[in-house]
């Protein structure tokens, strides 16, 4: 492909790589636990974290992704097939 379409595709592909690098593997595992439907306390136990640490990390993930709630972060990750 040559021309505007190829540059648009390249830009889209580059943006996808950047988006996927926003979250660490640990953060993706945390979102996967939340997506499974368990409570924050159970997710924290499974990830060997305190509930407070889990909530703090969820807030950090939300800030990174510029979303307002953990469920929006889960949706973000699911749409990108990260979880």
Uncertain residue ranges: none
The dominant shape is globular
Helix content: over 70%
What is the overall pLDDT average? 84
- Major sheet: none
Strand content: under 5%
Please count the beta strands (DSSP E, at least 2 residues each). 0
Number of helices: 5
Rg, please? 15 Å
Q: Could you state the order of secondary-structure elements as H and E?
A: HHHHH
Structural class: mainly alpha
Distance between the termini: 32 Å
Could you explain the architecture of this structure?
The protein has 83 residues and is mainly alpha-helical. It contains 5 helices and no strands. The chain has helices at 4-20, 25-35, 40-46, 51-65, 70-79.
Q: What are its keywords?
A:
83 residues; mainly alpha; 5 helices
Layout of secondary structure:
Blueprint: H1 4-20, H2 25-35, H3 40-46, H4 51-65, H5 70-79
Write a concise synopsis of the structure shown.
This protein is mainly alpha-helical.
């Amino acid at each position: 492909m040559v021309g505007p379409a190829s540059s648009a595709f390249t830009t889209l592909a580059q943006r996808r790589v950047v988006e996927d690098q926003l979250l660490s593997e640990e953060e993706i595992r945390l979102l996967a636990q939340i997506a499974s439907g368990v409570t924050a306390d159970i997710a924290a136990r499974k990830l060997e974290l305190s509930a407070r640490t889990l909530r703090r990390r969820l807030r950090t993930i939300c800030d990174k992704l510029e979303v307002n709630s953990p469920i929006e972060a889960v949706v973000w990750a699911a749409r990108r097939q990260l979880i």
